[in-house]
Please model this.
Amino acid sequence: MSDQTSDTSHGNSPAAWTAVIIMLVAFTVGTIAFFFDVVIVVWASVGLLIIGLIVGGVLARLGYGVSGAKYTAKEH
Model:
């Protein structure tokens, strides 16, 4: 088991949340487009998935990641 005091804010950062939300939207749109056989939207959602990954990395480097200077963890 993990201890809450030593395992604070693992993945709980603005960079992580932004990346995950963008990638969830891309996955949802891609799944619906795949169901309706709209190939161009499926590939656009793959592009959006990659953009979400890049946005998360850029935000983390700008200091909004878990160990970033612009992020302060909330106390539980």
User: Anything to note?
Assistant: The chain is about 65% helix and 0% strand.
